[in-house]
Structures are given as structure tokens and as C-alpha cells.
Amino acid sequence: MDYVCKEPTVSFPGPEIRVDLGALARNTTSILTRVDPRGLLAVIKWNGYGHGLIPCAKVVDRSGAAAFGVSSPHDGAQLRQTGITKPILVMTDWVGKPPSLFLDWDLEAAATSWYKVEYLEAVSRKFGRAIPTHVKFDTGLGRVGIHHSEAAAALQKISRMKHLNVVGIYSHLGYSGPQDNKHGQRQIEIFLKIVRQAKNLGIEPRWIHLANSAAAIAIPDVPGNMVRTGIALYGQPTTKDVYELLPLEPVMTLAGRIRSVRRVRRGHGFPTPHFWKAPMDGWGAEVGLGHSCNYPRSLVGKADVLFHGKRIPLVGLMSRDSCFVFTEEDRPDIGEEVVFWGKQGDAVLYLYELAAHIGALPYELPTWLSSHCTRVFTSDSK
Fold it and tell me: Is the pLDDT at 181 greater than 80, yes or no?
């Protein structure tokens, strides 16, 4: 019999973001073991990739991170106010901010261009106190940093500066999987040459770092005494190949609850005839998660979700506060959970799988989530 369920007499919460701090601690420990004896710079930019800056920083600090990377001096100040004493590198968004913030809160600055090197030298001279600086070189990624062809000249000038305090030399290894091996090896050779040139000029900073999350896991002999891991801390590999090298636990689960259920016959449209037609008999369900939480509407018709630990399609359309899924299994119950990424029982839906559908990077999806969505922090232990 075809029928439409009535709306529930009880209200269900909107989208829920669950952040498993226990999984974050275990991931940190696993990565530290993998990269030993190198130190770990925990990248917690953009509100800890949407997971929550302060709760995540506290866990990673207790788990043994050597340093932190943040988006802005404001974020660095917040960490200091919570009692974190380890080095904090402001990686982005500091130009134009009061330089006194670095001195007041003992923050370190990323110099990703020659302009920033000169600026930090001038500011340190003006205040009579040096802002600890990590100088970044572009070894082939082509994004930011002093280009490697200009490294020798830049290092000569830096060696003559009287106020700049270089505590780090670094680059970004453009590595996301085995397909990048050849290019990555070339970057490593260029980076090692730069480090040698610096040493010959008497520039021997405390920190040398090149590896991103994928490289830290996949290349055991990557140069440097520190690695920078961001999305890997949160249990999200960049590719399946990287996951297989070091399985980690997803820290975030994004979920919604079923609001209504309808029987859908093969060939019939759901939720209306104009958007999607069922390939077989099954059940269509409305789920209380829409684009107001900034889940990408472009994933409709492309992505799967988890229901009862199985993958089912996200279909039809997405409104501000709801979307629709289809299952061949027994009729879903109102109030049951649908997971859009993360864990449901033993099943996992990874960000890299979803991001591939829309040409995004895995870390972008959780950073897009609205601050209005409820975040629930747990500390599950195993």
C-alpha cells in the first residue's frame, strides 16, 4: 500500500556535528609514532578545520604535539589564554594585524614572501624584540613562499639582517598520494639544497619542516625535524592510498534525523516527479539537514549517506532545512539517524570520497559547516 507518513508529533533536533575527542587523541598518538623522532606541528587552522579550535587544541597538546599552526594572531591568543605554552605559528592572515600581538602572546610568524621577511625585520627593529619567524620557500608547489631560484640571494640577505630571528625554514611538499612521488622527490632535493645553503651562511633554525599530512604518513624519510599535519589529525586521509598506510579514525560525524517517510514505486518521482525517479521499489525519507548548515547542495544526486551502516543515495533536491534519501531496505522509522560523513557503527564515509564529486579538497567540507549547527563533543575511549 502506498502512503505518506504523518509528521511526527515530537520534534527532532536539526543537524548534529559530533566531535570524538578520544579519536583525535588516538590519531595524534598514531601519527607521532609514525613520524618519530620528528616533532608534530598540529595544524588547527580555520577553527580546527571546523572541529572546534580550543577543544581540539587541548587534546592535541596533551597528546604530545610539539607546536601548533593557526590561522590568525587572534587564534594564537586564544590558545595562550587556555594555558597552551608550546610554540604557535601564525600561518596565514597576519598582514595588517598589530605586530604587538605576536610579542604580547609569544607567537611566531610565517614569512611566506620576501616582503614579509623585510617587514618582520623592520618590526623587530622598531620594537627592540624579535618576532620568531619561519621563512617559507616555494620548492615547486607554486603557491606561496620565496621561489627556490631566489633562495640563495634571499638567504644571503637574511644572514646580514640584525634583528630577524629565524626559528624555522619550511616549504610545502605537494604530495597527496603515490602519483606525486616523482614531483615530490624533486621538491625534497630542492629543499635539502636550501637547508644546506642556509647552514653554510650560519642560519640553523630550530625547526626544519616540509611534510604535509599525506607526506608525513607516506614518506618515512621526509627531511626535517618536524612535520605539519592538519586533516590527518582529524582522521581524514587525502586519498585511499594514504588511508591504507595508516588507518585513522574520523573525528567528526555529521548527522541528521528522518522527519518523514514515503513509499516510492519504481519509476515514480521523489520527492516530486521533476527531480528524481526511483530505479526500483523502495522508501523515500526526508532528513532534517539542509543547505543552511552549508552541506554542499551540489552533492545531491552524487553522494551517498549512511543509514543502518549501509550506503544509500542522496537524491532529489535539498532545501534550506531538509534533504531526501532512498533505500530498498525495510521502511525507515521517523527519528532514525542518517550520517552524511563520519562514522555509523563500523561503517565510515570519508571526506575525500565526497570532495571528489564536486572538485573540492577534503578539508574544505568541515570548514564550510555553519557555526549555527550544534557541535557535541565526546571522549569515547577504546
Answer: no
C-alpha 165/C-alpha 205 separation (Å) is 9
What letters, b where the CB count within 10 A reaches 16 and e where it falls short, cover 132-169? Answer: bbbbbbbbbbeeebbebeebeebbeebeebebbbbbbb
Residue 108 neighbours by CB under 8 Å, 6+ apart: 87, 88, 89, 90, 102, 131, 132, 133, 134, 167, 168
| CB distance 259 to 288 below 8 Å | yes
- Under DSSP, the state recorded for 192 is H
Name the nearest CA neighbour of 106 among 128, 81, 88: 88
What is d(CA 44, CA 13) in angstroms, rounded to the nearest whole number?
A: 28
220-267 residue pLDDT tens: 788 999 999 999 999 998 888 888 889 899 999 999 999 999 999 999
Pull the grid cell for residue 60.
592535541
> Please, what are the domains in the chain?
21-236 (3.20.20.10), 250-378 (2.40.37.10)
Kindly state the cell numbers that stand for 283. 522508501
What backbone torsions phi and psi does residue 188 show, to the nearest 5 degrees?
Answer: -60, -45
**DSSP output for 28-39:** HHHHHHHHTTSE
147 touches 190 (CB < 8 A): no
Whether the model clears a pTM of 0.85, i.e. scores above it, the answer is yes
Which residues neighbour 154 within 8 Å (Cβ) at sequence distance 6 or greater?
114, 117, 135, 146
